């Protein structure tokens, strides 16, 4: 008789956990996955999927207006929030169901229950004691509110997907991925949006040129940008919300969204009972093999707060299952991870920013800004494209590619392959462009815009 009920127990049925469990079962392991809320986790239910559908919805309004310049006689009479919500929710339910089916098809035992540690090999799963030889923590993260008076009056990202109507005026606090995407959705669907953030530019961590172009694009869409401020209090006044800011100004709105980061879901998991260590932010600490402080317990996905992206989580979950049960020890690389911010137009990036690359050594910068063909006709403001390559002067390797512009996420996926393979600027140059596209600019950037990092390198 087996010593444990399962070879592997995965806590959390999101992107990381489902992939890990499914692949491990495919390798012959006896696997169970527990999910307390919804199969597919944040990405499918309150993240990437419903968000992208709403970004698409937001863009249609502008596109319908732009069509007039191309000869179409289209009247945009308004937007039906309920219709969008129903279509979105149906798609989310479909995908969430697929996640459940994938597990069942792979022979995984699913528990619709919360799992907590009793000891390092034993879990309480909805009141049932279950043992496992190995355990994977894949519990994801949760949106945070700021600790200010009246914070409970504000919403978090999950709430966008249960709102019954579009707020007439919205305040979005923060300027990371979620803030910028939510501001885009709300503005695009017709809300008046204030974006409120503590840095001079949105999207800290992105390339400085991209950040500048993003602020320009958001403002051109009619969003009111409030840089260099923090909210200090939210109050309800005559049925509206009043947000006080650190610069002593106030803004009124019908909905306030905290998009100020996420916390790893580790509270109440019983990690102490198992001896699993966390850092000061509550993230499970892991080594390069995703092993926690307890060697047979692993952690993957947003709960380790490393690169909080779905494709990263699935890649890591897959690699871990191959390593543990597939006789194929391997790691997913955290380097050169392409990523996109689905504002309008979207941002996509892979590799190093100019600033980060220049810290390592001298780099050549190739950059271009132009109005894409569609908008030379539509005359819509705020749609200028930015494309940029960061090239190592010594090796001529392309270290980073950055774009703000239509289809950038679709374009950057392929550029990501080239950069992961170590492509040089000359490799880009000898590639023939596809004409007429914006993408072809990445292979026709002949003239260096400037160099950077030369002074640092000389010091
Ligand atoms: P981010 O870390 O991207 O952004 C958090 C924002 O909140 C920043 O603007 C930050 O400001 C601000 N903030 C944090 N603390 C405070 C504070 N005390 N006072 C004022 N402002 C504060 O987190 P998100 O929640 O937007 O997204 C979480 C992660 O989820 C992302 O990092 C990304 O990995 C992933 N994600 C990916 C998406 C995609 O791939 N398209 C979409 C959505 C999320 P500052 O920068 O100054 O610290």
Explain what this protein looks like in three dimensions.
The protein has 459 residues and is an alpha/beta fold. The protein is 32% helix and 24% strand. The protein is built from 14 helices and 22 strands. Strands 1, 2, 3, 4, 5, 6 and 16 form a seven-stranded mixed β-sheet that branches. A hairpin with a 4-residue loop joins strand 12 and strand 13. Helix 1 packs parallel to helix 9 and helix 3 packs antiparallel against helix 4. The termini are far apart. The model has no long low-confidence stretch (mean pLDDT 97). Bound molecules: NADPH dihydro-nicotinamide-adenine-dinucleotide phosphate (NDP). NADPH dihydro-nicotinamide-adenine-dinucleotide phosphate binds next to helix 6 and strand 17.
Brief summary of the model shown:
The protein is α/β, with parallel strands linked by helices and 459 residues long.
Please render the helix and strand layout as text.
Blueprint: E1 6-11, H1 15-26, E2 31-34, H2 41-46, H3 48-66, H4 81-105, E3 109-111, E4 115-119, E5 122-125, E6 128-137, E7 141-143, H5 157-160, E8 169-173, H6 177-189, E9 192-196, H7 208-220, E10 224-226, E11 231-237, E12 240-245, E13 250-253, E14 255-258, E15 262-264, H8 271-274, E16 297-299, H9 310-325, E17 339-341, E18 347-351, H10 354-360, E19 363-370, H11 373-378, E20 385-392, E21 398-404, H12 408-420, H13 425-429, E22 450-452, H14 454-458
Parallel strand pairs: 1-2, 1-6, 2-3, 6-16, 8-9, 8-14, 9-10
Antiparallel strand pairs: 4-5, 5-6, 7-15, 11-12, 12-13, 17-18, 18-21, 19-20, 19-22, 20-21
Helix pairs in contact: 1-9, 3-4, 3-6
